[in-house]
From TrEMBL:
Keyword Endoplasmic reticulum belongs to the record: no
Family: Belongs to the LysR transcriptional regulatory family.
Name this polypeptide is given: Transcriptional regulators, LysR family
Pfam families found in the cross-reference section: HTH_1, LysR_substrate
GO molecular function terms listed in the Swiss-Prot or TrEMBL record: DNA binding; DNA-binding transcription factor activity
Species whose genome carries this gene: Ralstonia solanacearum (strain UW551)
Limits of the HTH lysR-type domain: 47-104
PROSITE patterns for this protein: HTH_LYSR
Amino acid sequence: MSPQGLESFCRALLAHRSISDNAISSIISIANPYSPETAMTAALPAFDLNLLPILLALHDARSVSMAAQQLGMSQPGVSTALAKLRAAFGDPLFVRTSRGMEPTPRALALIPAARDVLARIQQGIVETGAFDPATTTHLFSIALSDVGEMVFLPRIVEAMARQAPHASVQSVTLPPAQIERALETGALDLAVGYFPDLKKNNFFQQRLFTHHFTCIVRADHPVTRGGNTRLSMQQFLEYGHAVVRAEGRSQELYERFLERKRIRRKPTLLTPHFMSIPFILARTDLIATVPHAVGLSFMQSHANIRVMEPPLALPGFDLKQHWHRKFHNDARSQWLRALVSSLFNDEADEWREPDRRPAQRRHTK
């Protein structure tokens, strides 16, 4: 893009109160970072603004593969884009270290301007039109844990097929810090589930329902004899446990609760994954304590799994949907949030805490 064309583009945005003078300088300085004070008059090389989201994703993820996952691109595609960025700026931008791909000083200097440019272009131009779910081809990216996929994804995909037949859904699993950044940049549309880290002022949240824990065992486990459906504390302590260590998720609530109560079970198996649990329980006398939706799902898909009531009242936890305040009034985001809210509410939810009265549903910052 020529200097004159780039400046005209930015001035047009400014005329519509969509972008600031600082952002204009940011775009121009990105196009010609070596001489920002003369960028408007110097001959600038063409620069593809589509590369900026990739620059930000590489900075946030510190990994080509993670950036590709976050963007919904192939790894070779991100590598090709990185090569173009390096050529455009005459700098490596990211170098491999023992801690991953670390940004160079030049890359760090570009990041604030790139964020400002993309945010203002998205708000000022891309998001000004009306949203029609019947015709949209948008790829909706939602942060979900593996448990969240079991609880939320089937209904979301089913509803999408009816209401937004040309749209796609992408489930993304990222560390909490990367979820925050992805929601801010728009790489993620929503985070749905138990995300206690998303409590900052920049985020809105809406409670969907309160979930609880349950115990599961194989169908012919000794504790099920006589049609028993509740574990005694003696049985809970006597048998070994398959323990899911899903860091940063609802399982931590359960683990901390046991520590406070000084309940010491036998952790025979430790695993970060839920999906192997029913297969392991089917061959052992182990007990697993999982979110109730997981227990129901395993019992429905595995005939030899039974749900048991825990020997004591375990803490519940609220499942919520989270979004960045920047997209609070965005029509597409509003539609998706309304869809999720309608699908997962206290009145219709089959996983609600027993005897808990539905609470008023609202969104908060």
